[in-house]
Amino acid sequence: MLGFHFTRFDPDEDAKSKFEKLLDLFMQLLTYTSGDVGEALQWMNQLDREYQLTNEEYGMGDFIDDLKDKGFITDDEGKNEIKITPKTEQGIRKRSLEEIFGKLKKTKSGDHQTFKPPERKEVFNRLSVFLTSRLSAGD
Q1: Distance between CA 88 and CA 36 in Å, rounded?
Q2: What is the pLDDT of residues 50-99, one digit of tens each?
Q3: Which end of the chain is more exposed for a tag (fewer CB within 10 A), N or C?
């Protein structure tokens, strides 16, 4: 018999690693802070204190070390600040595009009207017909 089979919800079924979960949040915060790594990490620390995003096994320090090791952020020794890398910039752009266009689906081809401006040749032909008719009417 066909039907539904209900099971208990398991939040760990998605099985993203702690780093991946924190990276998702970090990238979102980078978008809100216009790429300011320091501010994004401050927000993450505050959210961690409120919602226990990390645990004893994997903390914010481990996350920052992993970000550096995996090439998402770098230390700018001259200015004494942390900056995002081109890899992170590309990730932000990719996530933004997926957020905007990710839910779009291809539809069947339909008989719908689209506005298409006339080509130059067509405009020139119409103009020459109009001018010819005006000139011949004047004779």
Answers
A1: 12
A2: 999 999 999 999 999 999 999 999 998 778 889 999 999 999 999 889 88
A3: N
Could you say which of 1.10.10, 1.10.260, 2.20.130, 1.10.3130 is the CATH number of the domain covering 15-101?
Answer: 1.10.10
Q: Could you tell me the pTM of the whole model? A: 0.65
Domain ranges of the chain: 15-101
Q: What gap in Å lies between CA 22 and CA 117, rounded to an integer?
A: 48
Q: What is the pLDDT of residues 97-131, one digit of tens each?
A: 988 888 887 777 666 666 676 677 777 777 788 78
> Measured between alpha carbons, how far is residue 80 from residues 62, 77, 83, 85 in Å?
20, 5, 10, 16
